[in-house]
Amino acid sequence: MVRIAEVAAQQCQLTSYDAVYLELAMRKKAPLRTLDGALLKAAKAALP
């Protein structure tokens, strides 16, 4: 599996914690709830 969240994290300068949080949400197909602008930007970039 390509680590889309990791790539998005690098492009959006996420912390390691946020990148893992994004990766987990994507793998579990769970909704991602955040007020963090960078995390939201990375999530939008990672989703098709």
Fraction of residues in H or I helices: 55-70%
- What Rg do the Cα atoms give? 9 Å
The average pLDDT score comes to: 83
The geometry reads as globular
Cα-to-Cα separation, first versus last residue: 15 Å
What does this structure look like?
The chain is an all-alpha fold and 48 residues long. The protein has one domain (4-46). It contains three helices and no strands. α1 packs across α3. The two termini are 15 Å apart. The mean pLDDT is 83.
How is this fold's topology laid out?
Layout: H1 4-12, H2 16-28, H3 37-46
Helix pairs in contact: 1-2, 1-3
Name its key features:
48 residues; mainly alpha
Short overview:
It contains three helices and no strands.
